[in-house]
Write a structure and sequence with these properties.
Blueprint: H1 3-22, H2 29-57, H3 64-85, H4 93-123, H5 126-143
Length: 144
């Protein structure tokens, strides 16, 4: 497996969680469960991605800006999660804040999958792609 496949699997999981969470309502156990699952998934993903995808790509002029942009978006996602953490599940504004988070996460995932992966594929050789995937997956397992 290459690093792109490993990251894409997590992206698909994040999309599914966001969609399921958007279908919840009020102060329910289901909303609480999906939200905690999403927070954990996003946090683990950000740590692993920054270590085993962005960091190695910071050394190339072709991908340094993409890496910096991705890290900046992780921080924006963290701020949106903090806003949700400070809002009661039953608050009518909670779903609006979730929509902002969903839009930001989906934008971030699309940026990576539609452009960054292609540039990174030109920078990393085959063995690096495979090795980074192994390290990324190991980090994800440890985070969970």
């Amino acid at each position: 497996m290459e690093i792109f496949n490993a990251i894409k699997q997590d992206h698909d999981h994040q999309r599914a969680l966001l969609n399921m969470l958007a279908e919840t309502s009020g102060d329910s156990k289901v909303r609480e469960k999906y939200y905690q699952e999403l927070k954990d998934a996003l946090e683990a993903h950000a740590v692993a991605e920054e270590r085993y995808f962005y960091a190695p790509l910071m050394h190339s002029d072709m991908t340094i800006e993409d890496s910096r942009h991705g890290i900046a978006e992780h921080h924006e996602i963290d701020e949106l999660i903090e806003a949700l953490d400070n809002t009661e599940f039953s608050d009518p504004s909670w779903l609006g804040k979730l929509k902002k988070l969903k839009d930001k996460v989906e934008h971030h995932l699309a940026d990576e999958e539609q452009a960054f992966f292609q540039r990174a594929g030109k920078v990393l050789d085959k063995s690096e792609k495979s090795q980074l995937a192994q390290e990324y997956q190991k980090e994800m397992e440890e985070q969970q």
